[in-house]
């Protein structure tokens, strides 16, 4: 991991509530709203971690439950996770924790929506290998606009697997739209490596977004006690966990070999103490992070892929922000662990 001197110093500020437009709440449930995306008709499809799927009309706030999703492993951090609507092929993609006997793993599937029911449901992928831990499933989905889909998988609290190409845990994966493996994935020809792997060395990657202007893939992940990161993802690159990290064990000791090592990527930004970034998006040319333990929306002003200013937004609401996504109306939509789905004007 090579350290490059940064001459631009970022400053973190907490904006006063009076300077922030009041969020409009569209949905108020009692379960974690983990993922959401926009259907072509303007409605929003969203997931609850317990395994439920809904559609809501943001104009009328009318909700409709969606049937047809299989049973999920809704234990610990597991459950029904992300949902993304493909812009052209008619499919809706999901990630979820799949029960496998007494164990579980991260799964990736797609279906179509027809008359408030999911049809043509097909599981495309299950991460190798299932285990009993109920942590760090991931999992965000992102399209590259070129026929490929990226999916994040956490280390499942088996940190050594993040460096082991024989496992999917602790990796960002890349698929074709039908779930097959692209021939140009970096480890397709590597003996014993899982061919779906795009990058490795991740702990709990829950933010993933493609910068549509530059076609660069960005990722946000949670460290342990400190060490949260945002990274610019490169093909075949190693992001260090658990060999290098700015975080510590929850009970105090250091982890790994330090915070830098040759051949491992340095984060664009990191946080100590943790803010727990759970989602990442671009809006008005800035990066926005949904934070859990931070209980705010974190805005990053960027210049030449470096952070020059940071703002903590809506900290006074004490919400655990789970997901963020710009809407077709130009507003920033969010979901929370408290079961809220809403939007913010510019």
From TrEMBL:
Q: Which InterPro entries match?
A: 6-blade_b-propeller_TolB-like, Glc/Sorbosone_DH, Quinoprot_gluc/sorb_DH_b-prop
Identify a single GO molecular function assigned to this protein.
Answer: oxidoreductase activity
Signal sequence residues: 1-18
Write down the top EC class of this protein: oxidoreductase
Transmembrane stretches in the record are none
Stated EC number for the protein is: 1.1.5.-
Domain Glucose/Sorbosone dehydrogenase, chain residue ranges per copy:
33-340
**Record keywords:** Oxidoreductase, Signal
Write down the Pfam families for this protein, in alphabetical order.
GSDH
Name assigned to this protein = PQQ-dependent sugar dehydrogenase
Q: Which organism is it from?
A: Peredibacter starrii
Q: Taxonomy-wise, where does this protein's organism fall, top ranks first?
A: Bacteria, Pseudomonadati, Bdellovibrionota, Bacteriovoracia, Bacteriovoracales
């Amino acid at each position: 991991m090579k350290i490059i001197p940064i001459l631009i110093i970022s400053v973190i500020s907490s904006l006063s509530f009076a300077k922030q437009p009041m969020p409009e709440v569209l949905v108020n449930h009692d379960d974690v709203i983990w993922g959401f995306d926009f259907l072509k008709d303007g409605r929003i499809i969203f997931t609850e971690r317990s395994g439920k799927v809904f559609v809501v009309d943001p104009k009328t706030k009318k909700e409709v439950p969606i049937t047809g999703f299989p049973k999920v492993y809704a234990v610990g951090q597991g459950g029904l996770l992300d949902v993304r609507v493909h812009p052209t092929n008619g499919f809706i993609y999901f990630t979820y924790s799949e029960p496998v006997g007494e164990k579980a793993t991260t799964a990736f599937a797609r279906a179509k929506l027809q008359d408030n029911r999911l049809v043509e449901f097909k599981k495309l992928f299950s991460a190798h290998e299932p285990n009993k831990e109920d942590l760090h499933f991931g999992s965000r989905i992102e399209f590259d606009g070129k026929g490929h889909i990226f999916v994040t998988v956490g280390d499942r609290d088996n940190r050594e697997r993040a460096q082991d190409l024989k496992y999917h845990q602790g990796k960002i994966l890349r698929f074709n739209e039908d779930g097959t493996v692209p021939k140009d994935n970096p480890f397709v020809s590597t003996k014993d490596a899982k061919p779906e792997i795009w990058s490795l060395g991740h702990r709990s990657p829950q933010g993933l977004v493609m910068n549509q202007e530059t076609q660069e893939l960005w990722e946000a992940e949670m460290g342990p006690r400190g060490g949260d990161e945002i990274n610019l993802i490169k093909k075949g690159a190693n992001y260090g966990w658990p060999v290098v990290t700015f975080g510590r064990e929850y009970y105090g000791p250091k982890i790994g070999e330090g915070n830098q090592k040759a051949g491992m990527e340095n984060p664009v930004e990191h946080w100590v103490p943790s803010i727990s970034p759970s989602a990442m998006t671009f809006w008005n040319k800035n990066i926005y992070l949904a934070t859990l333990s931070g209980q705010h929306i974190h805005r990053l002003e960027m210049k030449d892929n470096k952070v020059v200013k940071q703002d903590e937004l809506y900290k006074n609401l004490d919400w655990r922000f789970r997901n963020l996504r710009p809407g077709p109306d130009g507003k920033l939509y969010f979901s929370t662990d408290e079961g809220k789905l809403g939007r913010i004007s510019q």
